[in-house]
Amino acid sequence: MNREQIVSVVNAMQRAWNSRDSQGLAAAHTDDGVVYSPIFGEIHGRAAIEQTYRDLFAAFADWTFEPLELIVDGHRAAQLFTVTATHTSDLFGVPATHRRFKIQGVLILEFRDGKVSVERRLYDFTALLIQVGVIKAKPAN
Questions:
Q1: pLDDT score recorded for residue 141
Q2: DSSP state, 137?
Q3: What CATH class is the domain 3-131?
């Protein structure tokens, strides 16, 4: 894929992020796509990937994905981002805390046949858990 094609896929994903469209986000992935996620672990296949987006938007109803810099290198891209959201529903047995969080991260995307074949979601999951009050941390001295 060339840069313009990759940018087009990433832009379509951003429109889906903006509308919290699980199906639209999953459609950007190949049928046999793989996602590595701090929250969901290793996910295989478009249907399972779509479920992670549904679970994410259920737990964080106001999830806002703000894209930052997009770096494209051959058939790969790195999408830097900021996310803000409120923990509004149960996630893996943790009841909603109704606390907001803000994290930064990067999506490492590999493309094949016009779609994302591998996605690595990298962000500070511990910071998210601290901000929503699931775990406590002592401040550094």
A1: 64
A2: -
A3: alpha beta
Return the domain boundaries, the chain. 3-131
Token pair, residue 78, equals: 């790195």
Between 106 and 128, the higher pLDDT residue: 106
| Residue 60 structure tokens | 């964080």
Entry field: residues in the chain: 141
Q: CA distances (Å), 26 to each of 16, 32, 90, in order?
A: 9, 11, 22
HSE of 95 in the Cβ direction (CA atoms, 13 Å)?
0
Look up tokens 């979601």; give the residue: 121
DSSP category for residue 10: H
Q: Any idea which residue has 């002592």 for tokens?
A: 138
Sheet with 41-44, edge to edge strand ranges: 41-44, 29-37, 115-123, 100-112, 76-86, 64-73
What's residue 135's pLDDT?
A: 81
- pLDDT, tens digit (0-9, with 9 covering 90-100), for 77-95: 999 999 999 999 987 788 8
- pLDDT tens digit string along 108-128? 999 999 999 999 999 988 888
Comparing C-alpha atoms, which of 15, 50, 11 is closest to residue 29? 50
